[in-house]
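Listing 4. Sequential folding, example run.
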Amino acid sequence: MTAEPTGSTRPDPAPGAVALTGRLLCADLDEAAAVREHLPEHVALTLAEPGCLRFAVEPTEDPLVWTVSELFEDQLAFDAHQARVRSSRWFEATSAIARDYTVETLTGEV
């Protein structure tokens, strides 16, 4: 099953913004089903967070792999997001799923 791309983008983040990119790597179809079931609420809650500039989780051609792209205006907003997630239904349902993420603070240099 493919899902529509999720999330929002706002242009040109300022220096100090925090970007997370990577993949969710489901071990089996049950884990992928948990992602599909809980993703809409997770996306809606994340996009409503103060400081969320972009949040997208998209399926790939592999039904067990999802790409993840997040952008928060600063470290405080990113940390608040991480704290909220740890107490969410999303975390409860997907915490066993492998993640391959890179987190970086943007400097504004090209």
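-- end of first protein; second protein begins --
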Amino acid sequence: MSMVINTNIAAENAVRLLDRSSREMATSMERLTSGLRINRTADDAAGKAVVEAMSSQIRGTDMAIRNTNDGISLGQTVGGAAEETVNIV
């Protein structure tokens, strides 16, 4: 007894193309929702490394600014205390 196998090549191609289109749309949606051009290392490995280095540098600068502001506040507090001491004397 012989067996006949029928395949629908057009349907298989349509499914394959639909799957690829769905993946591309998911990637586009991820980029749109995050607002970033590079979301993963696979998007741009060198660019991702640059972004990480710059982000680290920005975090360090932000911390330096906060520390400077804390120092200014401390100086103002000490100045106010010294002024009050002079007023008492």
